[in-house]
Task: inverse folding
């Protein structure tokens, strides 16, 4: 037997509506000592006759997408991607090529495709976000398989012109690779949030050693 | 000056009076009744004429080809010459009433009269009622159109045509009224009943004037005892079985005919020839069969039990052959004939089994069988009751009559939940009463509701450019299309991308295709709205993109839908 509240939940209607339907004799619920109840089969039959959807089949609005792992944080992503110092190159294309060579964890045959997609993206609009930092990334996954998103940080031997929004030459590349747009967005917005921190930016511009950069991130993560 | 003002005022009042006047409708109803009565008399006379003209030919060996020729001619006339849809008439009228506010073409007022006259007059087993109903209804519809009546009044006049036709054929005005309300209109409303009653009376009166007061069945008196009431339950069982099998037989025959590879114009001939061959051995299956019915009611039908039982089957087969293979005509008269034959079979069987049981008489059971078949085939128990009461002119028979009609229609409803007339329409999903949710949703189309003033953005637009677009738009939804191919690729919901909008770092590195939703279900312009609403409920979105051959057309939102839904409902029900 189902109560009014359960009936309302199953029909996905407000309890007040179910009360009104009972008052108007629209729904065959039986009164027993002041409480209304209906058998589940009766309700199903009634709903079918009236062409109403029934049950909990409606997905909840905040349902987590399944099957895809959620982003696990900037620190692990940077650790997976690795940090590389003194990347050689005199222009945007050269340094991107050198950076792609350095990316760990992808198949050597995929590298040319990754590079192509990075250059294509740069041609649309520069990923130089100012303060000497650029975030090269492909528009969409160029066809590589990655367990988890990763950030490869490359410190350039010489700053190169990247047509960044503040027109300053770029000395730090953070190449973002991920499986899906969703992971990419999560990673990018988190990273962008950290990059607002002046101390973190200084760490990157000063080409600090990995330990101090990671410590800086840990400090920021513990802050919130 | 004063006079002209008064005149203008009077004119205005006359216009209002005329536009909302029941008298106009009632006057026109009488006229429509006369017209459909004329149609009924004309068909009756024509059938009579054909009958006498062809009578001399039936002894020839090739007589069985007569029904074939008639059926072919009638199909040629109906389908090729007049380009009318096939069908026996009543479903077409019901469809026009439920879907098109009773609009019927003028040619329908004579097309089926001629074609059914050819089919039935040459010996095909079919009824003239449905053609006359269609013709009366078409006359009513066109008269209403001529006088620029409103939709409701036009439907009333269509009903008037049907009522006048049935009233004139059976000399039974109440049966005409009840048939119209029960079968054609499907609703009983006060503003319908009076004009339709008047049309039924004028139609009947006209046919009485022209053909006398005794067509086609004579009044009969029976004395009904308790034993007859008990025996009527047996009629119920027999009538249910016969109705259901006749319905199935017609449908099966139609299926066989539509699968055959014969050219369209030959098919009615096949059915006609088969009927003709049956007619060689059992001439009483030919035609509409009123004469035999009359004999049975008057208890002067001579053939014995086994021959009558055989005739039931033969008549069913002949009817299925005629109508299933494309002859033109209705099911009403065959139902009457098969019903009275079944009643007779039942009576003679009981008489043989219990010779001492004093039943009311053959005629009475023939009438009960008729009532059973009408209520079973047409799901119209009240029509059956009133028709028989009017034919017999007595209330004695009403008790067994109500038992037979009510129970047969109920049992048939359990086996075949729709009447024979509506079966095709319901199967095609075309029978929907105005003012119902299904009807409103099926009348509205996606194309009527789509809002097209949405701005598409290319898929590679940077977020900072996109923000400029947002600034100058009043929408919060943006379709995204591929820059090169202009194909629709996804939707951007401003409320879902808020975190990126307020982060200046992201403005330079994010593109529209990265923040858009690809998983938004799209709607096609010819999708059914009921499905669209289900989709909205399942995806919990209040607007969905409409996409046609990969191009974005516009958005369909629940709020616009509700607006139009309400207006449509008001228009359909004609009330506030």
Result:
């Amino acid at each position: 037997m189902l109560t009014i509240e359960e009936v309302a939940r199953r029909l996905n209607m407000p309890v007040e509506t179910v009360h009104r339907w009972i008052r108007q004799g629209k729904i065959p619920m039986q009164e027993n000592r002041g409480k209304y109840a209906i058998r589940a089969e009766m309700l199903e039959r009634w709903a079918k006759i009236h062409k109403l959807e029934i049950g909990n089949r409606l997905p909840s609005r905040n349902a987590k997408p399944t099957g895809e792992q959620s982003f696990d944080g900037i620190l692990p992503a940077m650790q997976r991607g690795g940090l590389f110092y003194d990347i050689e190159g005199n222009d945007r294309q050269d340094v991107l090529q050198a950076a792609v060579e350095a990316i760990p964890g992808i198949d050597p045959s995929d590298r040319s495709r990754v590079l192509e997609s990075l250059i294509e993206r740069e041609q649309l609009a520069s990923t130089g976000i100012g303060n000497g930092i650029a975030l090269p990334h492909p528009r969409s996954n160029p066809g590589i398989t990655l367990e988890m998103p990763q950030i490869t940080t490359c410190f350039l031997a010489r700053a190169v012109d990247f047509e960044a929004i503040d027109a300053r030459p770029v000395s730090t590349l953070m190449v973002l690779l991920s499986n899906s747009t969703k992971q990419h967005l999560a990673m990018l917005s988190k990273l962008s949030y950290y990059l607002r921190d002046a101390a973190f930016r200084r760490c990157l511009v000063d080409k600090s050693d990995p330990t101090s950069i990671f410590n800086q991130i840990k400090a920021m993560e513990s802050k919130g | 000056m004063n006079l002209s003002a008064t005149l203008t005022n009077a004119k205005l009042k006359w216009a209002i009076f005329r536009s909302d006047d029941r008298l106009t409708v009632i006057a026109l109803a009488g006229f429509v009744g006369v017209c459909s009565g004329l149609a009924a008399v004309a068909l009756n006379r024509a059938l009579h004429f054909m009958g006498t003209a062809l009578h001399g030919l039936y002894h020839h060996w090739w007589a069985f080809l007569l029904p074939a020729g008639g059926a072919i001619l009638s199909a040629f006339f109906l389908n090729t010459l007049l380009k009318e849809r096939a069908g026996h008439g009543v479903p077409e009228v019901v469809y026009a009433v439920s879907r098109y506010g009773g609009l019927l073409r003028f040619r329908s007022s004579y097309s089926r009269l001629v074609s059914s006259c050819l089919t039935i007059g040459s010996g095909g087993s079919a009824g003239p009622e449905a053609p006359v109903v269609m013709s009366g209804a078409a006359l009513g519809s066109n008269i209403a159109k001529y006088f620029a009546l409103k939709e409701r009044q036009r439907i009333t006049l269509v009903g008037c045509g049907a009522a006048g036709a049935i009233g004139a054929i059976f000399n039974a005005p109440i049966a005409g009224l009840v048939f119209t309300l029960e079968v054609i209109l499907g609703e009983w409303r006060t503003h319908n009943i009076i004009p339709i009653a008047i049309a039924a009376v004028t139609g009947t009166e006209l046919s009485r004037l022209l053909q006398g007061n005794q067509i086609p069945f004579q009044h009969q008196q029976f004395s009904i005892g308790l034993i007859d009431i008990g025996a009527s339950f047996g009629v119920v069982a027999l009538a249910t079985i016969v109705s259901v099998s006749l319905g199935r037989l017609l449908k099966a025959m139609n299926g066989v005919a539509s699968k055959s590879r014969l050219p369209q114009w030959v098919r009615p001939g096949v059915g006609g020839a088969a009927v003709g061959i049956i007619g060689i051995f059992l001439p009483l299956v030919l035609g509409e069969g009123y004469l035999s019915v009359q004999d049975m009611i008057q208890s002067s039908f001579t053939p014995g039990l086994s021959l009558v039982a055989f005739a039931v089957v033969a008549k069913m087969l002949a009817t299925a052959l005629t109508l299933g293979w494309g002859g033109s005509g209705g099911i009403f008269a065959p139902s009457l004939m098969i019903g009275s034959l079944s009643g007779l079979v039942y009576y003679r069987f009981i008489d043989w089994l219990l010779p001492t049981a004093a039943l009311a008489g053959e005629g009475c059971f023939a009438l009960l069988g008729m009532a059973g078949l009408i209520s079973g085939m047409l799901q119209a128990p009240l029509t059956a009751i009133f028709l028989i009461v009017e034919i017999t002119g007595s209330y004695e028979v009403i008790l067994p009559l109500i038992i037979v009609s009510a129970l047969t229609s109920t049992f048939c409803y359990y086996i075949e939940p729709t009447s024979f007339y509506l079966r095709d329409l319901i199967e095609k999903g075309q029978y929907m009463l105005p003012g119902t949710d299904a009807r409103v949703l099926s009348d509205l189309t996606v194309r009527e509701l789509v809002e097209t003033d949405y701005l598409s953005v290319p898929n590679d637009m940077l977020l900072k450019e996109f923000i400029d677009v947002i600034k100058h738009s009043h929408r919060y939804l943006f379709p995204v299309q591929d820059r090169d191919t202009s194909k629709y690729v996804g939707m951007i919901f401003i409320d879902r991308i808020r975190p990126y909008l307020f982060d200046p770092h992201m403005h330079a590195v994010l593109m529209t295709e990265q923040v858009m939703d690809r998983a938004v279900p799209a709607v096609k312009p010819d999708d059914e709205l009921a499905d669209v609403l289900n989709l909205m409920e399942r995806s919990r979105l209040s607007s969905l993109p409409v996409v046609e051959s990969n191009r974005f057309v516009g958005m369909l939102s629940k709020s616009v839908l509700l607006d139009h839904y309400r207006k449509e409902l008001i228009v359909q029900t004609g009330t506030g």
Summary: Chain A has a mean pLDDT of 82. The first strand of chain A starts at residue 30 and ends at 32. Strands of chain A lie at 30-32, 35-37, 83-87, 128-130, 133-134, 150-160, 170-177.
